[in-house]
Amino acid sequence: MDFIIPFVGTLGFGGLMGYGVGYAAKKVSKLALIGMGILFFVIQYLVYKGFVHDVDWGGIAEAGGHAAKSGGALFWKIVTYNVSLGAGFVAGIVLGFRKG
Question: Under 8 Å CB-to-CB from 28, ≥6 apart: which residues?
Fold first, then answer.
């Protein structure tokens, strides 16, 4: 029974830290989406008023997709760097992201 106690502590701590990371990640992603919506509106307003011409939305979408892929990979690399908290951490991230 004594060999289980360290794992329970690690799972609990990992789960708690994962929950915090997941919760914060969802809040930050919501703020980023709000910012992108405001930016889209401002660009469209400038096009409507004639200050900006020929916006390449396809290029912007492609750049945004690339940034999202590399940003997601970087986020996961940073969050899991030197973390041996395992399943509790991953489960915590999922639960935190769902709750946030």
Answer: none
Q: What is the pLDDT of residues 41-76, one digit of tens each?
A: 998 899 899 998 888 888 888 888 888 888 778 877
Nearest partner of 10 among 78, 67, 93, 89, judged by Cα: 89
Q: State which residues form the domain around 12.
A: 5-99
pTM for the full predicted model: 0.68
